[in-house]
From TrEMBL:
A GO cellular component entry from the record: membrane
Keywords: Membrane, Transmembrane, Transmembrane helix
Pfam families: TauE
Domain of life: Eukaryota
Chief location bin: membrane
Gene for this chain: LOC107432016
Origin species: Ziziphus jujuba (Chinese jujube)
Any one GO biological process: protein ubiquitination
Transmembrane segments: 6-24, 65-98, 104-125, 137-159, 240-258, 270-292, 322-348, 360-383, 390-409, 421-442
Membrane topology: Multi-pass membrane protein
Family: Belongs to the 4-toluene sulfonate uptake permease (TSUP) (TC 2.A.102) family.
Localization of this protein: Membrane
Protein name as annotated: Sulfite exporter TauE/SafE family protein 4
Length: 464
């Protein structure tokens, strides 16, 4: 019910924001000067303004670099733990503190997200599932959402050329406030449940009755059959599913080739739209295969009376629920491509909403995000959008942050026995991104209003 409420809030708020463009457009008599408008290449962010000169500061030790290193480390650590990446923090940091132009800042931000995601995936591959003898990465959910998210990202990037700058800022605030509020509510509910569970377990440890009815105080028993401890290599092998990884890599490669071909073809030409449309059968083909698989497995479990679903998530894989997942995947990717978030701000909260436990939700969201962010980095590299020395340095910082962030949070969960810590971090990162990107977006929108710039929708072909 809460999930439907969040979706209803997002759809209604987005609809009102988009409809308001027509009203503002009628109040604006200015023709669109093409040099001042938002333009984006595939998987870029809202900070891409055509006409912005390339500004690449030198990589040298100063207070700006130190502050950027600290913010980048903390943002990467918290972002990967929550499964959202942290792009909403990196882009303002790179533009305001380091001094990069907005295009280069967006490209370097993707490098940082990729580095943190890859290191987090490597760490998670060496961690067992907290409750089951299954991989901590849920490959079924990754295969279900990855193609739809990547398809949505490409659609969102195309829409970002058409949508006015101020509208994207409004959508950012609506999305991030909605998802952060829902995630915070989810975290508080989990915290309460964990407190109740800890209280009950403490009472059981304090008072125990033996087989003779004698009351025992503070008695601890060793299990008759000790739990088998696995080595790191054994955990790594059990977490890897090479068949699933190869399918995800095939989808990633297909989208990369199509994007590279599309970038080298005349915009709005026949071949441009042919290549653009080829993304749909790839995404829907993989999603359809995984949907049929999950649907059959669900029917089989129900026929034998096993109601347990993957990752302890109470998901009934009916046709309606699978269609809902497809819609959320496409909408999440579209919003991610439109806002430049890469989809992580949607996928992380969505996995929690459908009932996936926080450790698995974080690991799976980060795993999927590694594919989408690396796709962006390859495209930006081919387009020569970022300085390699600076990108390598900040990527290295993010790699270290992603690993140590996962390590420290896992230690905190083990000490306090509260997985809700992950959800609190997720909520905090999204809210911080709403503040940084919202404030800067509002400031730039006010400048556009003062300069009497065009505030309506742009033509897709004419804006390229």
């Amino acid at each position: 019910m809460a999930t439907k409420g969040l979706v209803l809030y997002l759809l209604s708020a987005f609809s009102l924001a988009i409809l308001s463009v027509s009203f503002i457009d009628h109040q604006n008599d200015y023709s669109p000067p093409h040099q001042n408008f938002l333009q984006q290449s595939p998987n870029s962010t809202l900070w891409h303004l055509s006409g912005t000169d390339k500004v690449w500061p030198e990589l040298k030790f100063n207070w700006r670099l130190v502050l950027a290193t600290i913010i980048g480390f903390l943002g990467s650590a918290c972002g990967t733990v929550g499964g959202v990446g942290g792009g909403g923090i990196f882009v303002p940091m790179l533009t305001l503190i380091v001094g990069f132009d907005t295009k280069s800042a967006a490209a370097i931000s993707k490098c940082m997200i990729m580095g943190a995601s890859v290191s987090s995936v490597w760490y998670n591959l060496r961690v067992p599932h907290p409750t089951k003898q299954v991989p901590i990465l849920d490959y079924d959910l990754a295969l279900l959402f990855q193609p739809m998210l990547m398809l949505g990202i490409t659609v969102g990037v195309a829409l970002s050329v058409v949508f006015p700058y101020w509208l994207i800022t409004v959508l950012i605030i609506i999305l991030f406030l909605g998802t952060s509020s829902r995630s915070f509510y989810k975290a508080t509910e989990m915290w309460k449940q964990e407190s109740i569970l800890k209280t009950e377990m403490a009472k059981q440890r304090e008072t125990t009755v033996n087989s003779c009815g004698e009351l025992l105080i503070d008695t601890e028993y060793e299990p008759l059959v000790p739990k088998e401890e696995k080595t790191t290599m054994q955990i790594l092998c059990s977490n890897l599913r090479w068949k699933m990884v190869l399918v995800l890599l095939a989808v990633w490669t297909s989208f990369l080739l199509l994007q590279v071909l599309k970038n080298n073809i005349k915009v709005c030409g026949v071949w441009y739209w042919v290549i653009f449309c080829l993304q749909f059968p790839i995404a829907f083909g993989v999603f359809g295969y995984e949907s049929v698989k999950l649907y059959k497995e669900h029917k089989k479990r129900m026929s034998v009376g096993n109601t347990e679903s993957i990752c302890e998530a109470s998901i009934e894989w009916t046709a309606m629920h699978l269609a809902f997942c497809a819609l959320c995947g496409i909408l999440g990717g579209t919003v991610g491509g439109l806002l430049g978030s890469g989809g992580g701000f949607i996928l992380g909260p969505l996995l929690l909403e459908i009932g996936v436990i926080p450790q698995v939700a974080s690991a799976t969201a980060t795993f999927v995000m590694a594919f989408s962010s690396s796709l962006s980095v390859v495209e930006f590299y081919l387009l020569k959008r970022f300085p390699i020395p600076f990108a390598l340095y900040l990527t290295l910082i993010s790699v270290l942050a992603g690993f140590w962030g996962q390590y420290l949070v896992r230690k905190l969960i083990a000490i306090f026995r509260r997985a809700s810590i992950i959800v609190f971090i997720l909520s905090g990162v999204i809210f911080a991104s709403a503040l940084t990107m919202g404030v800067i977006g509002i400031e730039k929108s006010i400048q556009m209003i003062n300069n009497h710039e065009f505030m309506g929708f742009l033509g897709f072909c004419s804006s390229q």
